[in-house]
Amino acid sequence: MLKEKLIKKQPLDGKVVIVSGGSTGMGKATAKNIVQLGGSVCIIARNTENLKKAVKEIESLKTNDKQFIEMISCDTTKMEQLKPLLTEFIEKHGIPDYLFNFVGFAIPNYIENLVLDDFKIHINGNYYGQLIPTLIILPYFMKAKKGFISFTSSLVCYYPMMGYAMYTPAKFAILGLAEVLRNELKPYNLNFSVLFPSDTNTPAFAKENETKPKECLMMSARSKIYSPEEIADPFIEGILKKKFMILPGVSKLAWRMFRHFPKLVRWIIDRDLQKVRKKIGKE
């Protein structure tokens, strides 16, 4: 739950936020927070039914009559489809104040089962799915010399685990993109953030578990699974504080450990894999 004190302040009053991947999970939870804090929101996703349901839920949280909730049904990896839709939105409502990118998915598997197209699918969905909305919005932010863009990476950047050979490189790419844009666009007064969530109870996570290698399932079983709200709340608080790296829950500890003791983290991951392989008779 968002802090009551923060809701009373209405820090997003009059602000407009575009949320890609906003119909379910962390994106939807964040869109709800935006509206509770006085902002207006446009959620983007492929599934129209999920979008309609999300809009109804979000509308019930409006705090004033000036707010609006809109939806765009589109695949964010399709520049030619998304660009005219976002252009139309901007012509109607003006340049937004924020773009929050939550698009992403993982289909974990053993490396020997993968082909090149599997890697391309993950780069397309996890990297281009966040890059394309950014490329569309950036010229408006640069012209206005204001704006805030957030990306969603993952805990896997600091706790890389077997089974994620397709997903992890894409999430590193997101971090690299954010780092470069932060530096290059500093003269334009733009702000950037990167969210590093750990396992979160979303429809995408449920799907992810269907293909996880047995070792990966066993290794991650001890980890806490967060609710979307447990990620969305510190995310919004981090955005309001203009934090570049937003590390909710266990992600903060993982980042600190990997930063200061990378050899230890690798030793722990390797030890855990050896243990579970022994349990399932692979050693």
CATH topology type: Rossmann fold
Q: Count of helices? A: 11
Helix content: 40-55%
Report the count of strand segments.
Answer: 7
Structural class computed from helices and strand pairing: alpha/beta
CATH class: Alpha Beta
Q: How many structural units, i.e. domains? A: 1
Q: Regions with pLDDT < 50 over 5+ consecutive residues?
A: none
Report mean pLDDT, rounded to a whole number: 96
Write down the secondary-structure element order.
HEHEHEHEHEHEHHHEHH
Strand content: 5-15%
Shape: globular
Major sheet: order of its strands? 3-2-1-4-5-6-7
End-to-end Cα distance, whole Å, is 45 Å
Structural overview:
The chain is of the alpha/beta class. It has one domain (10-252): Rossmann fold. It has helices spanning 4-9, 25-36, 48-59, 79-93, 116-144, 167-184, 203-209, 214-220, 228-240, 251-260, 262-279, and strands at 16-20, 40-45, 69-73, 98-101, 147-152, 190-195, 245-246. Strands 3-2-1-4-5-6-7 form a 7-stranded parallel sheet, with helices on both faces. Helix 2 (25-36) packs parallel to helix 3 (48-59) and helix 2 packs across helix 9 (228-240). The longest helix is centred in the middle third of the chain and has 29 residues, at 116-144. The model has no long low-confidence stretch (mean pLDDT 96).
